Amino acid sequence: PENTLGVDVGGTRIRAARIGRDGRILARVIEPVRTGREGFSRQILRLIADLRDDHTAAVGIGIPGRVDGQGQRILSAGYLDVAGLDLRMLMAQAGLPAQIENDAAMALIAEAHARGDCGAGLVLMLTIGTGIGGAALLDGRPWHGGGVAGQFGHIVVAPDGPACKCGRMGCVETFSSGTALGKLIAGAGLPVGTKAADLLAQDDELAADLLRQWAEPLRRAVDTLVAVADPKLIVIGGGLGAEMVAALMRLPQRGAWFGAPLSAALLGDDA
Questions:
Q1: What pTM did the predictor assign?
Q2: What does the DSSP 8-state code read for residue 61?
Q3: Which of 1, 77, 123, 195 is surrounded by the fewest CB atoms within 10 Å?
Q4: What is the maximum alpha-carbon separation in the chain?
């Protein structure tokens, strides 16, 4: 039976999988991502060659950063030096048609299929990982705006906050990403390797304070999204999606103006 390949390119890892038409992951490979253009190109071609079989019909590739989904162009990719790399042409050399999207857009498409209730209206997603990604689905289709809509990690939540790689100050990514949580944990003197799940399992003031510092900026960003777009659902995904939702639920309740259904991604880090 026909299958496809999915490639998720992250800030630190690249994950590739062969996926059946029913959405089951049939085989997968996870390894550190090569950050240079030449090494990355060879890496992705090798992973596809290793995973494809005689029934593989196409490949979808999710890239972190600014991806023009309409034009299928990588404008910037965070820590990776792949801006301008023509991945569709590279995949054509491997004999496979390809679709390129921002990684959060790919995750939201997968979530919509898994949920089955995202066909009408506006659904937003934030992905919490090395950075913070975002995506919008309008009436079941990715909404790109002018080309790169969905850069929700760069909503400014504190104008005097840390410098962000986008060139501005105080983006929510600098406060509520996995990278930011690691800095909070290190600054608190906790053991190396302490994770969000460990903080959630602890019942002490320090853990509670770190979770609050991590989640509160994201809630400000979510409130902004609700005020601007009034979505029917906001999905929180990525490697730390479930932990972020748990941390958000611990924050004190505020006024009802900016309430929106929040849900942890059903597919978790597999989206």
A1: 0.89
A2: E
A3: 1
A4: 56
